[in-house]
Amino acid sequence: MSPKERPDAPEQHATIPADERGTRSLDNPVDTARWLALADTALSRGASEEDVAETEKLARKEQAVIKRRIRRTAEKVNRQSKLKQ
Asked: Which domain does 34 fall in, by range?
C-alpha cells in the first residue's frame, strides 16, 4: 500500500512553489554549446590560454548562479523559521 493510499498518511506538500517548478534544471543552450565546443577543443588539440580563460569564465558564471540559488533558499528557510517562532 503506497503512502497516498493509507488513510493515516500525512498529506504530501510540494517543496517548490508551482510557479518555480520545472525551471531550475533548464540549461542555457548557448552555455551548453560553449561547454561542448570547449570540450571538443581540449580533447582534440589541448587547451590554449584562451580556452582556459573561457572555461574559467563559464565556470564562474555557473558558480554565481549556484550561489544565488543557495542564497535564495537560505533566505526562504530563515524567513520560514522566523515565522514559526
From this structure: 28-84
Which residues, at least 6 apart from 58, have a Cβ–Cβ distance to it below 8 Å? Answer: 31, 34, 35, 38
- Distance of alpha carbon 11 from alpha carbon 3, whole angstroms: 9
Residue 76 lies in a domain: yes
Q: How many domains does the chain have?
A: 1
This prediction's pTM: 0.49
pLDDT score of 1 = 47
Here the cell at position 33 is 554549446
- Using an 8 Å Cβ cutoff, are 38 and 55 in contact? yes
Q: How many residues does the chain have?
A: 85
